[in-house]
Amino acid sequence: MLESFEITENDVVRYLKQHPGFFEDHPNLLKKLHLRHDSGEAISLIERQNQILRKENTDLIDRLNRFIHVAQRNDKLFLNLQTLVLKLLACRSLNDICKTLNTELTERFDVDQVQVVMCHRLTTDGDMWLYCDTNTLQTHFPAAMRDARNECGEFTEQTRHLLFADTDIQSLAVGALTKDDKGVGVIALGSKDAKHFRSGTDTLFLGHLAMVVSQLLLTL
Asked: What is the pTM of this model?
């Protein structure tokens, strides 16, 4: 005696996936199938498929536009960074480097303020960098000083105040400056927008800039 069995919804779905041309072989059945539209009206399966395809096409176009926007933004960043690096290569002192970073980054990179902080170079009158002892820098920027890691975020109010005194800087991007594989300072970019430099912000360009400045420090 044959055992009876029930065909489940999953069985139907699996079968149709395995036989995508099923409705082409049964056009009369296709005409009888209707789906409920968002408006409440019944529409044919073909109309529903067209709706899905149009929606997927729109989503793909939106994603492509976002990719294009990111690519254009990265191209602009690369060209501006290239210009900045060439100007840095012409610098002959740490003050020249600080001045060039300040001018170029605030004018070309949507940065409100820039601060170079060193722990191995004391300052005198007229120097444009900030001196901090090693322990202080390691306390405020352990990732940069101990791991040579660049990072972004709001940081603490105390850290922001250390870099930019009484200004209204709300978020930072911090690049690690190294010498002989040891942390000797940071480049800090400040923004008045708390969301401008978020913890997930890409630091690729900042890291490249920090490496260039680190190499220049070896020649000064």
From this structure: 0.70
